[in-house]
User: Fold this.
Amino acid sequence: MEEDSGFGLLDYMRSDEEPELGRMAITMGFIILLIFLVLYDVLYPGHGFPVVSDVVPLVAGVMDSSIWFFILGIMIGFFSLVASVLVGAVEE
Amino acid sequence: MNTIILMMLIFWGILLLFAWRLRAGLGFLGDTVAGMTGFMLGKALGPGATILEGRTGTAAMAWINHGMVWLFMGASITFVDLWLGHSPNALHSLQSWSWDLTGDAALNPSIMTTFGGMIMLLIGCSLHIMPRMADASLSNETNAGLMAMVFTGGILLFVIGSQVPNDIGNMIAFVGYTIPALAALAIIANILLTIREQTTGLEAPQWFIIIGLVGWFVSSVTFVLLGPEAAPHTLWISEQLHIGMFLCLIFGVVYYAIPSTTGIPIPSRSLIALTLVGTVVTVSPMGYDPATLGFLELAWLPLNLGVTEGASFPPCGGETNCTSSLIITTMMALSIPIMFMFSTNVLTAIRRSGAIFEDTALTLIAFGSFMLPIMAIASLFTTLDAMSGSNELSAAIGSMRLGAIWGAIIPLALGGTLAIIPDASGKELESQSSGIRAVWFLGLGIVGTFMVSMMSDFAEISFAEAGLEEGFSSTAAELQPIASVLFYGVVLGVLFLAQNVVRGTRSHDSEPEFSILGPSRYVISGTTTVRDLLTAGVTLDTVLTTDDGTDDNVGPTVLSEEE
Assistant:
């Protein structure tokens, strides 16, 4: 392909602010999940989601107090702290 | 002789003897003893001595990092304990895993993890400060680093043991409580061997640290020496002396941290000396709560549970002698001016630095210093109420303990540690702005929790005074969940500060920073010395001007035109 020397199409296609690949993957995953949920509801109306419908009542039965939301936050915080310590140790 | 008087005399006597020998230059640690102790800390560990590399400064940071994680765990478990206070069965589903975390099951681990984390932070700071001020390297860096792991193992054992409600669990918890004490003993030996190399006299922060560490053990030794017969009366005094010695350690760390961070000296050396003597001579009223007796029963397991069952402060009134109560009451009351002395000295230094709300560590220290006298006075009321046996404020004693620990003691220990970290590790905090935000979380969280839970407690007290002792105030029941949710701010604050520390960035400038300036202009009246100027917070950039005495506006006040 010949190089476009003038103010043409290639100038518009050359972007220098590409989004990060990870962010793109997360966004695409979220969109695909939404499409799947809508399609599943259309194709199998009234049916529960596979696996998820079996797990949710179990979790709801165990985590029947709002303290679990706080404990979830504590666990996320704790693991992020441990992860930071481990990353720091590996770096050095 | 009266038991309490005897206990205090033994405590002061041992500390005085130790301080006298320490002032003489540790000559009592002869070469043989020093060599043997050095051998026990090093080669006697066998292969264990080679686990860690032992680079200079790594031990201090190991203790601080472990301490940060345990402090976060302490805040989290305290939050769970608060929640279980109003919803005892909130975590009943864990019973399917044979874990009965209901009622007050989280209280003992919350105490162990909170104080364990705090002590680890303070020992980490001590391992940095003592060699730095002695101008020598730590006697055995590898052993000190190894002891951080041992200490952590002990806390973990205690937490596990406290959750197993049988004799085996009690024994595991007791072992878990004893192991950290042994690790701390090794640290004391390490520090003593280090300052043995010091050619100059000990500096004030060093005195605070060494007296705090040794006094912590001496108070326990005194308790044991008086035997199980006296235990019901000496137990609480011993625990209050522990709190006093922790404060002594904290004061030492803070008195070192502020000048080393800001370049501005602590304003009054006399107040520093008075604080040291006062902390040893008085008894702290903070942190007393009969609900923590279960923790002490695990900690003193060999004493037989029956001994500590009826533990109380010395009784007074009727046919009993009130001497002990009067002595303890006086010593507790005398601790209040000591708290004010420390607070005034520290807050003045921080105000002169101009770094409040700009530097995370100094802001946290300022918050703790501000809260310290307030919590000490409030604790004096609740503790003396319990001592006198009137128990009119017994409902508020738990909230008071929480406020004193998380509102004053922990912020001071944590702030002092954060100030020392850049020097100890060569790493700055990741972000000062997020650090300040974390301090806001912590500060508002504990102040909110304290106020709301006090409102709940006094609603309950009013309900009881109205003669409705069988019921429970609905106002109190509604306020308790709010208090526990507000405490989540403390959990988040400690978490953000811990993340800020572990994600810290390598400092590019190894020289200490003195960007925080003192006063821009300072007026001198009469003759003065450079020492006085430095004490007043003057820095190299301050403009000095002289007062020539031509200010005509100043003079005697005219009371009346006729006169």
Summary: The radius of gyration of chain A is 23 Å. Chain A has one domain: 9-91.
